[in-house]
Write a structure and sequence with these properties.
Elements (H helix, E strand, L loop, with lengths): L3 E4 L7 E4 L4 E4 L14 H24 L3 E14 L5 E13 L3 H11 L3 H7 L10
Antiparallel strand pairs: 1-2, 2-3, 4-5
Protein name: Putative redox protein
Pfam family, one: OsmC
InterPro entries: KH_dom-like_a/b (IPR015946), OsmC/Ohr_fam (IPR003718), OsmC/Ohrsf (IPR036102)
Length: 133
Amino acid sequence: MPIEARLHRAAGALTTLSNGRHVWNADISAALGSSDRAPDPHDLLDSALASCTALTLELYIRRKQLAVSDLQVSIEHVETRNAQGEVHYQLQRKLHIEGELSDDERQRLLEIADKCPIHRVLSGEISIESQLV
């Protein structure tokens, strides 16, 4: 099922998103003319990578029965512009893993983080086709 976004202009720019099973919101900051009542689209993109990484690692941790007591993933994005004004978007991911793990197991978890599906999408070439309906 596709993700659908419905803009509520009377609420600034609050947008309701749905995949048919779940509903969540997005918004823009007050500085841009809304009420900042939900994460902005950049936060949603960053959270997709953070959650996908955590869930991918959790599946691996379960399968290998690793002694992990806590797992946290943080994503920070940095935007820069080159001389032509093109935006370069860099995501910085930090993994905090607690538990009785060897250095080799920790290194393997770092490798597994790169295998999360959203990481693969964001690291590859993306094309977007748009049409009016």
